[in-house]
């Protein structure tokens, strides 16, 4: 229908979607000026030929909906805008509550002969398996996305028996790490099933990314064109994004390290943006020497030794890190006097810190939660290691003091009015001794508590829950101050910024949200993951946030503008732990596949893989100076890895940054410094104290 077409073209022009407009114009064979002219003469002469007489399109309807599908990709998934504001687009397609669904699915209208699908696929399979070794590994990446799309195409066009036999014949050939996805796929056997299935829709809307060398790609293209294998070629063009690089094809081992996420690998473009991974300059203030420091065996010598050391701490932080973000790039809270005192304490502790290394491993102190019948679901420990919090499946949050100092609440208002506010020990006087206890229980959530986080100043505590809320608790009064409602589904993780004030949460709704404690609406919403956001972490400079997801990718987001600046693929299962190195340059990630992957943030590359755990890794922590990485897992072990060695041999210039190739050492055993078993306690949390003692926590499981 010509008028509809013109209306759509004008809409696209108004919305500045030039690319989509061009595509539509090419497909419809309309020239630029015709759009205006045709609008003037409603009875436009038949300028519009048959819309492409190839196997691809069945009539204008498919064409239009394919253009909307293309537009969805151009806008980055907000297809709703195009589809809903021009009703003509959805001609002949049932518009559902998600307007993009029908547009996306109707891309499957391109009918091939259903009986030939198995022949097409096995023909390609035969070709790939007989190609040279160097190309075979790269081209084998095509098997999985083609298998899924061909199966869905058969189901969508209601060839159910052909779809079933296609699935049964070829699903065994797919890589083992796609098993879970294939299980979901096997349950989609009718066209109706496809409408509400999110995983399926994501597979449709986001193009599956493959990284292939130019030689391998040419080989594939030549084969498909010789064979006149239009069905497969169409899928390759419609639904796959092939990131072609010049140079040697990658080996099976290099490819296996990087693939496995829901949408294939990351495009190389996705990891090119500049990231300020350096640390912010520490504020300068004098460190007073305490009396206790001056006592000691050699009374004259000790302070003298201490002083130059203190100065060096000061001077080290005066130099601006060249990779650091500008100091005022995002507004950070002012330092209060209490924060300064805490920093002084921190420096004193740091002076007594143990230098760790392969020769000097940390002691590990394990906090076992016994009789935790409520079901321990989250743990956090304060930076100064004075308090530990547990989130439980019975919706309670329990805070313990792990020092002899008991937890006390502030006195009631009536009692506070009697206190002399000028006295030196006013902070002591406001605490109510009658409330002193080792444990405080906080009630308020109405579902299991999946994440907890102490604020850096130890005044507040965050908890997030299955009930969809994040709660902020006061550790002065042990009451709930705010409930942040933004997620509609369970919230899996939350974490305070290292500077306080900001915090991040991630949940089942597939987005992460950035909040400030004094705003009840989120400041930023980070959308892009294709499945639950399972864990969240702030970068040490607070300008970036890392999120791990069940779509098996890790993303790094810029707090300033909400952009995704890094996408890391390589894990074969949902990601459950993240840790930044103290210098801000590296990120470690752990997942259900039992592997710890190491990433260079600046170059956007995987630089290491630590194998050893046999179950999900729930906890990762770098020691205070970054020499050691500790990992804790459901396999009841804590493992220590040599982080210095893992990162030291990086030749980043010829690091084939262009192709994103990586050569991982065959075994990571020489990086493993120690494995420590618990009796039967999965490790849920790890924490290095300021002096580099490693604290671990988990709940004893009797089975």
What does this structure look like?
- The chain is α+β, with helices and mostly antiparallel strands.
- Among the domains are: 112-265, TFIID subunit TAF5, NTD2 domain (Serine Threonine Protein Phosphatase 5, Tetratricopeptide repeat); 364-378 and 446-650 and 663-699, YVTN repeat-like/Quinoprotein amine dehydrogenase (Methylamine Dehydrogenase, Chain H).
- The strands form 9 sheets. A 4-stranded antiparallel sheet has the order 4-5-6-9, with no helix packed on it. The chain has a 4-stranded antiparallel sheet with strand order 10-11-12-13, with no helix packed on it. A 4-stranded antiparallel sheet has the order 14-15-16-17, with no helix packed on it.
- Residues 32-99 and 291-317 have low confidence and may be disordered.
- Residues 112-240 form the TFIID subunit TAF5 NTD2 domain.
- Residues 287-298 have a biased composition (Acidic residues).
- Residues 310-321 have a biased composition (Basic and acidic residues).
- One of its GO terms (biological process) is transcription initiation at RNA polymerase II promoter.
What is the fourth-level CATH superfamily of the domain at 364-378 and 446-650 and 663-699? YVTN repeat-like/Quinoprotein amine dehydrogenase
Second-tier CATH architecture of the domain at 364-378 and 446-650 and 663-699: 7 Propeller
Shape: elongated
**CATH topology of the domain at 364-378 and 446-650 and 663-699, what is it called?**
Methylamine Dehydrogenase, Chain H
Strand content: 25-35%
CATH class categorisation of the domain at 364-378 and 446-650 and 663-699: Mainly Beta
Q: For the terminal residues, how far apart are their CA atoms?
A: 67 Å
User: What kind of sheet is the major sheet?
Assistant: 4 strands, antiparallel
How many DSSP-defined strands? 31
Helix count, per DSSP?
21
**What does the radius of gyration come to?**
29 Å
Helix/strand-derived category reads: alpha+beta
Q: What is the typical, i.e. mean, pLDDT? A: 80
Which parts are unreliable, with pLDDT below 50 for 5 consecutive residues or more? 32-99, 291-317
Strand order in the largest sheet: 4-5-6-9
């Amino acid at each position: 229908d010509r008028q509809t077409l013109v209306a759509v073209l004008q809409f696209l022009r108004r919305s500045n979607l030039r690319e989509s407009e061009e595509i539509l114009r090419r497909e419809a064979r309309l020239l630029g000026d015709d759009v205006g002219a045709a609008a003037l003469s409603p009875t436009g002469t038949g300028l519009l030929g048959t819309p492409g007489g190839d196997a691809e399109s069945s009539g204008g309807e498919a064409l239009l909906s394919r253009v909307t599908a293309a537009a969805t990709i151009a806008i980055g998934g907000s297809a709703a805008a195009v589809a809903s504001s021009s009703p003509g687009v959805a001609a002949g397609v049932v518009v559902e509550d998600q307007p993009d669904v029908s547009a996306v699915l109707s891309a499957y209208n391109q009918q091939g002969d259903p009986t030939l699908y198995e022949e097409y696929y096995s023909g390609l399979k035969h070709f790939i398996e007989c190609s040279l070794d160097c190309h075979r590994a790269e081209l084998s990446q095509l098997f999985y996305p083609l298998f899924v799309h061909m199966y869905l195409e058969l189901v969508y066009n209601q060839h159910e028996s052909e779809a079933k036999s296609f699935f049964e014949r070829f699903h065994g050939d797919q890589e083992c790490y796609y098993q879970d996805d294939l299980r979901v796929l096997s349950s989609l056997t009718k066209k109706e099933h496809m409408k509400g299935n999110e995983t399926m829709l994501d597979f449709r809307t986001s193009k599956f990314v493959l990284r292939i060398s130019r030689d391998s790609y040419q080989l594939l293209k030549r084969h498909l064109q010789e064979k006149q294998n239009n069905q497969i070629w169409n899928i390759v063009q419609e639904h796959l994004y092939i990131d072609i690089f010049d140079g040697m094809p990658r080996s099976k081992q290099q490819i296996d390290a990087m693939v496995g996420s829901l949408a294939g690998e990351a495009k190389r473009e996705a990891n090119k943006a500049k990231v300020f991974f350096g640390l912010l300059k520490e504020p300068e203030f004098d460190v007073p020497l305490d009396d206790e420091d001056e006592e000691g065996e050699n009374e004259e010598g000790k302070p003298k030794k201490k002083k130059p050391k203190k100065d060096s701490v000061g001077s080290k932080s005066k130099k601006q890190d060249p990779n650091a973000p500008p100091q005022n790039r995002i507004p950070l809270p002012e330092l209060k006097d209490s924060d300064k005192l805490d920093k002084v304490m921190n420096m004193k502790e740091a002076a007594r810190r143990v230098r760790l290394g392969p020769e000097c491993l940390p002691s590990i102190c394990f906090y076992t939660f016994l009789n935790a019948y409520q079901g321990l679901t989250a743990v956090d420990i304060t930076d100064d290691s004075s308090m530990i919090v547990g989130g439980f499946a019975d919706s309670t949050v329990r805070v313990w003091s792990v020092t002899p100092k008991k937890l006390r609440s502030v006195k009631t208002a009536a009692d506070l009015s009697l206190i002399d506010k000028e006295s030196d020990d006013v902070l002591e006087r406001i605490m109510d001794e009658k409330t002193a206890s080792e444990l405080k229980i906080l009630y308020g959530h109405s579902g299991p508590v999946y994440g907890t986080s102490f604020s850096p100043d130890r005044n507040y505590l965050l908890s997030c829950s299955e009930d969809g809320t994040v709660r902020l608790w006061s550790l002065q009064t042990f009451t709930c101050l705010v409930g942040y409602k933004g997620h509609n589904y369970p919230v899996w993780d939350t974490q305070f910024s290292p500077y306080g004030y900001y915090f991040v949460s991630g949940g089942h709704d597939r987005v992460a949200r950035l909040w400030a404690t004094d705003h009840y609406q989120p400041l930023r919403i980070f959308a892009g993951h294709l499945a639950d956001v399972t864990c969240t972490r702030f970068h040490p400079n607070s300008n970036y946030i890392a999120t791990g997801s069940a779509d098996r990718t890790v993303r790094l987001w810029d707090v300033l503008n909400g952009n995704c600046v890094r996408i890391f693929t390589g894990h074969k299962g949902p990601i459950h732990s993240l840790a930044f190195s103290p210098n801000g340059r590296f990120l470690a990630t752990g997942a259900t596949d039992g592997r710890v992957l190491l990433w260079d943030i600046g170059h956007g590359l995987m630089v290491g893989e630590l194998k050893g755990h046999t179950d999900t890794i729930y906890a990762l922590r770098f020691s205070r100076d970054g020499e050691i990485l500790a990992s804790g897992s459901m396999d009841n072990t804590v493992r220590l890895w040599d982080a210095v060695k893992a990162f030291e041999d990086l030749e980043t210039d010829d690091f084939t940054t262009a192709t994103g190739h990586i050569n991982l050492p065959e075994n990571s055993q020489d990086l493993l410094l120690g494995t420590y078993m618990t009796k039967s306690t999965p490790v849920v949390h790890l924490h290095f104290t300021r002096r580099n003692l490693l604290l671990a926590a988990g709940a004893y499981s009797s089975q």
